[in-house]
Amino acid sequence: MDPQVVLISGGSRGLGAAIVDALLNDGHSIATFSRKSTDFMDRCKSNYADRFVFSEVDASDTNALHAFTKSTYETFGRIDTLINNAAVAIDGVLALSRDEDISLMLDVNLKAALVLAREASRYMLLQNSGTIINIASIIAMRGFSGLSTYAATKAGMVGMTKALARELGARGICVNAIAPGYLDTEMSESLSDNQRAQIIRRTPLGRLGTANDVVPWIKFLLTPESKFVTGEVFTIDGGASV
Fold first, then answer.
1. Which one of 29, 50, 70, 175 has the minimum C-beta count within 10 Å?
2. Could you tell me the domains of the chain?
3. Which residues have CB under 8 Å from 2's CB, separation 6+?
4. Number of Cβ within a 10 Å radius of residue 20
């Protein structure tokens, strides 16, 4: 497989960092952003200076997303893959939620994904090729108490995936989503011991997922062998949604 230029949102930690690490090791060029840098981002800049770009970008800032996508194209000369990974999850029953928390999740989880897909697809259309991967969640399909807004944003990503697959397919651009179950990352740290135990108990494979359970599916969707697959949602949850 030829090296690709991959733009990924939220690549500084958690699942995003695992994807960045794996794709850099496979020889791809990576452009990623998050609100703040991390030690991992510093190591990537040091070890892969010729094919790694990081910027501090607020995913809720539409103008900044446009500028970052344009800068990525100008730096590498193309954008082969977009991975919409950045997300915020704020727990709480909807009746007690704050307007600003709802707005933040809608902006970061869904609006940013739409804006980045719009910006990146413009370059992909010029190339007549490309891949868009949206990181959704099984919460979009199954729900979870206290995560109504988060579920709504992830369900929106699923709908976006299917519509974009129809829009862009004739130009050789594949659009798919991955819906992980609960992963043992920073985003699951807010789970109580009882919640964690309940999720594990309801999962046939008897554990939370890890980033390493998801990364191989990302890598597959970058390969030529995946290019007759579009508009699909791949559920990776240890059987929890069965």
1. 50
2. 5-233 (3.40.50.720)
3. none
4. 28
- pLDDT, tens digit, 9 for 90 and up, residues 73-116: 999 999 999 999 999 999 899 999 999 999 999 999 999 999 99
Report d(CA 54, CA 122) in Å as an integer. 21
150 belongs to the catalytic site: yes
| Phi-psi region at 192: left, alpha or beta (left = phi > 0; alpha = psi -120 to 50) | beta
pTM of the model: 0.94
Count, residues in the chain: 242
The 3-state DSSP class for residue 164 equals helix
Q: Which two tokens stand for residue 182?
A: 């609960």
- Report CA-CA distances (Å) from 72 to 7, 145, 174: 8, 38, 20
Contact assessment for residue 111 and residue 118, using Cβ atoms and an 8 Å cutoff? no
Residues 83/88/91/93 CA torsion (nearest 10 deg): -90
Helix axes 14-25, 39-47, angle to 10 degrees: 10
